Structure to design on (407 residues):
């Protein structure tokens, strides 16, 4: 090599890393924790919008809380009759790079039991019980083609904000576009910090759109999410990974639009707040009502006798060796196949049980057993006190003989 050639080569800048890696892969932050029962102390309360309040909390035991961006916590507060605990799932809206604290952003629903309690009562210095981190709505630990389209409808911005924070902090080549739809200008929660990220990071672009509601004071984007909007803002959307969060109707529209643009279904990831009750305090249409039997007041024999008296419940075939799963509220008895979960048996017979993750993590499919034993192999989606009270997760519980379910 000539001296001139050597001098020329030294002027070539080093090639930047392709893609991004999560901080725990690089060793700059702790590996995400498995789900665990937590006591969280509220440190800071911030009004993000007329309907959304953020709460920054820390573990009472002083330990860090390591999580993946996009995950959520199951929060328990005494919002029920006589202060009985009620749980709801709320996405973490902060970045996992600071494990000393965690932030949730809660929208108050008009008929929301838990969200109303949180808005009215949770203040700095108070402690709430939590379970988590939970959920599988997050980018891979290593993204070599780090091209993302983030879609958020309303308070669906909460896990998306966490994802955006993490991608922003990760070094490497990336292209990230966020489109956030809200009903009113004042409802763009967390928009200040997200727009600030876009100002400082040339890899990030943030687009705010009001949807199709007219507003004389709004000069930004407006209109429903459609292919024309995405093509104008993100021309290369078909080559991106899409993370979308919001109510079911928004997600249905998002999927239809991005698929029409050529996005592979394998590159489309969603989190539905109604399915996991993250802001939803309203019962999903067609879902089974909550348990009403007092299991402490009756014996298993009495429960079995009561089951036999339910109108419409077919008689148990004594010659059938399969476990019988009796759903007392719907009056249906299902013979479970080998290896079948309670949820699978119910679904096969047309019984609607609320569910979401199907792997024992989110806690959506909780039901009460009134008699019988199950083999429950969960991934942290249920509390110890609930198990002791006869609650199971239908998605990961298999009957070990005849079982009676309050559903």
């Amino acid at each position: 090599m000539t001296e001139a050639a050597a001098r020329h080569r030294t002027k070539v800048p080093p090639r930047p890393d392709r893609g991004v890696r999560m901080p725990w892969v690089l060793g700059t932050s702790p590996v995400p924790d498995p789900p665990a029962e937590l006591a969280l102390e509220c440190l800071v309360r911030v009004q993000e919008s007329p309907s959304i309040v953020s709460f920054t909390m820390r573990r009472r035991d002083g330990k860090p809380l390591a999580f993946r961006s996009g995950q959520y916590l199951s929060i328990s507060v005494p919002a029920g009759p006589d202060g009985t605990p009620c749980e709801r799932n709320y996405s973490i809206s902060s970045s996992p790079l600071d494990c000393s604290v965690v932030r949730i952003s809660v929208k108050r629903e008009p008929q929301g039991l838990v969200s109303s309690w949180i808005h009215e009562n949770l203040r700095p210095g108070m402690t709430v019980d939590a379970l988590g981190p939970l959920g599988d709505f997050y980018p891979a630990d290593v993204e070599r083609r780090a091209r993302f389209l983030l879609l958020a409808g309303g308070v669906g911005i909460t896990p998306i904000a966490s994802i955006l924070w993490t991608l922003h902090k990760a070094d490497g080549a990336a292209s990230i576009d966020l489109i956030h739809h809200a009903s009113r200008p004042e409802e763009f929660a967390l928009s200040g910090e997200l727009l600030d990220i876009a100002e400082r990071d040339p890899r990030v672009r943030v687009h705010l759109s009001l949807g199709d509601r007219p507003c004389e004071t709004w000069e930004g984007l407006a209109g429903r999410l459609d292919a024309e909007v995405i093509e104008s803002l993100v021309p290369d959307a078909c080559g991106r990974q899409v993370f979308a969060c919001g109510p079911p109707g928004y997600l249905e529209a998002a999927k239809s639009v991005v698929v029409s643009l050529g996005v592979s279904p394998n590159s489309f990831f969603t989190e539905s707040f109604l399915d996991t009750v993250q802001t939803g305090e309203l019962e999903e249409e067609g879902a089974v009502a909550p348990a009403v039997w007092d299991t402490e007041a009756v014996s298993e024999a009495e429960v079995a006798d009561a089951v036999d008296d339910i109108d419409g419940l077919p008689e148990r075939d004594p010659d059938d060796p399969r476990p019988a799963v009796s759903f007392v509220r719907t009056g249906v008895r299902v013979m479970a196949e080998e290896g079948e979960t309670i949820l699978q048996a119910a679904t096969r017979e047309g019984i609607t049980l609320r569910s979401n993750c199907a792997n024992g993590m989110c806690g959506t499919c909780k039901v009460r057993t009134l008699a019988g034993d199950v083999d429950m192999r969960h991934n942290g989606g249920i509390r110890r006190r609930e198990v002791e009270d006869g609650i199971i997760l239908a998605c990961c519980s298999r009957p070990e003989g005849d079982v009676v379910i309050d559903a």
In short: The chain has three domains: 23-134, 142-276, 300-405. The two ends are 79 Å apart (CA to CA). The chain has a mean pLDDT of 84. The longest strand covers residues 36-47.
